[in-house]
Specification:
The complex is a heterodimer of chains A (305) and B (509). Chain A is mostly helical and 305 residues long. Chain A is 70% helix and 1% strand. The N and C termini of chain A lie far apart (51 Å). The chains are: A mainly alpha (305), B alpha/beta (509).
Chain lengths: 305, 509
Amino acid sequence: MSDALTTVAVAMFAGAVRVSTPFLFVSLGECLTEKSGRINLGLEGTLVFGAMSAYAISYLSGSPWVGVLAAGLAGSMFGALHGAICRLPKVSDIAIGIAMMLFGTGFAFFLGKGFIQPTAPRLQAIDLGFLVSDPQMKVALQINPLFFIGLALAVVMWWGFANTRIGLVVRMTGDSATTARAMGVSVDLVRFFATTAGGFLAGVGGAFLSLFYPGSWNEGLSSGQGLMAVALVIFSRWNPIACVGAALLFGAAGALGPALQSVGISQGYHFFNAAPHILTLAIMIATSSSKRSLKGAPGELSITK
Amino acid sequence: MSEAGAGRAIGVETVGMTKIFGSLVALEDVSIRVRPGTLHALLGENGAGKSTLVKCMMGFYQPTRGEMLIDGREAAIHNPREATEAKLGMVYQHFTLVPSLTAAENLVVSRPDCPAVVDWKREIAALEAFMATMPFRVRLDTPVAGLSAGEKQKLEILKQLYLDRRFVVLDEPTSVLTPDEADEMLGLLKGMTSRGELTILMITHKFREVTAYADEVSILRRGRYVGGGLVGEMSTDDMARLMIGDAEIRERAARVERSDAPVVLELAALFASDDEGLPAVSSFDLKVHAGEIVGVAGVSGNGQSELIEALSGQRDLDDGRILIHGQGFEPVRDQMDRFKVCSLQEEPLRNSAAPRMSVAENMALRTFDKPPIASLGGWLSPGPMRAKARELIERYRVKTPSTETPIENLSGGNVQRAVLARELSGDVDVLIVANPCFGLDFASVAEIRTQLLEQRNRGAAVLLVSEDLDEILELADRIVVMSGGRITLQARIGETDRTAIGHAMAGGH
């Protein structure tokens, strides 16, 4: 029994590292966008489109890293489009986000039809298995470089929000647009760039899905991870470092189903696969209050206004 | 810094400044002269054109006609950035500080030459050195959201000096301060101007501040310059007459005195929390008798809004009981109706009206489910609703094109009258009022205060929460001062004075 428990624990750890990467990238992107005072719900579409373009470009160019870059650029286009539409007067960023989500997924399916069959070169993992002797752990320590890039990015963002001009300007714009205007900062421009950069990160998160884990392109690839990442940003209270922890937690929850299956518990497989969705709901309920406003929320966000 | 700053104050002059928005002439041929090193007061009612004038000076608006002289030289200010370059600055009534940033972050980010990567050790040392030369200081490492209103106001002014502005416009700078804080701040600013470090143009409507601190005054009415000069040469009566003009003001109702009136509204140990979940109102006990106005004074943000919201059903009570005529009261619709509780919220368009519904519908919000408006089966009859609205519009002098106009199209004073008409149209036993005259012109203020006094004289128990101490001193029979969510002073009007009230506002006993 304890063997099975260890197996499940190791599998969940491995899963947490593996599954968390797209969550991490999308939530860091969304964190940046929301810090500037805008919500981009379209990141689900960006994620799927990023996955498709990474796979296609990797297949066509033969280099998965070119695919990652292409996904990022495609993602920034989506972000830029969202940012450009939202700077028009009387436009709701939430409605545009939902439209962009549908557009992104639909467009990805349309362009990606031809890439479901072929096999594209995948991203190679960094093998840290030499650190341990346990064979299960050896497999679990096959970690994708994007995970480390994501970790580094979270630290850089956390430091940058407090110590750089760009970081201060983004926080100022997100917390009080009138102040930003009084300081001569163009609120629309800051939000445009923040949304574009956020789109880039979400696109890269998509590349991870199609080029590493699960590592193929099909239409059911994302299953709402882009949307869950939005909830995750709220859960981590707009703190990039907390985003890492939240992404790992969601990753572990996502790995629960496969982990139980690996020790022979296949009953309720689909139920356990739904764990991240249930976790999303549970966390949102547990951390919300009808009497309190969200702490740490940027003052300009359309959901908290 | 203060030594080096001496003699650097700038003088600013406007010549024939005119601003026209569409068909509205907001500013007409206004020429004022603010001499360097003076504290100049700009007096006027709401809508008199004060903000339009200073916004033209600061480059937010382009004047339709007229020009500006800085230190005697003609200067064109096309946008706020050019105003900054000319060392002109403004402190707005609504703070332009970023709540989640610390004071230090706010100061550094406001600098045009803010470095790409901030070396906090050096910046903090530089800020400390700057603070040491200033007459007042603010904690640098606390997020602005955690500062008191007075500290925020000080930080705003420090920011202007940090940015080396030498002509600063202050828009009603003392509206969020206790009288003591206001005196301290104005005294310090006055010192800076008379040392020639700074020139200040202060928008205000408080005569006391003008006579005590300003060197000169300019008065605007309906977009025109109507008078001004050295403060020493004008009486407050002169200023008031110039400011109000010959507007017709309704006679104030006389006060009917009575004794042994029963307690109508009783608040017993109320506790309520703010949006952050922190305690905002703590063990609040108060009795209001029939035919009495109890004024709740205090600096804004000391729990008054939470108290009002809890009493009018917009916020849950954490603990405590509300009693009316000795019976428990819950602020829900049928009990408000049964106990005859009415409330007049601050900013009525936001808090107690449906902006896009018509005037008639808004006036029926308390009565639409009762005959004659509601008939059998829950159908509404528009006829009686309009008839009732027409009667109220007549009686309360609401200026509206028709009963079907969306209420958001009315001016502030008329929205307030319409809501007042709705709340007072039935019998009123308990009336809860918050800042009823905020942002209204003199005529509306006088009318609304008269209505409140009439309700009092008819025997209603009135709880008046106001940030305007003069309003409370004029209307209330008893005063209660709130600070930090608690009552710090309770006295009959006439048995206390401004000094005691001021200390209580600051939290003292």
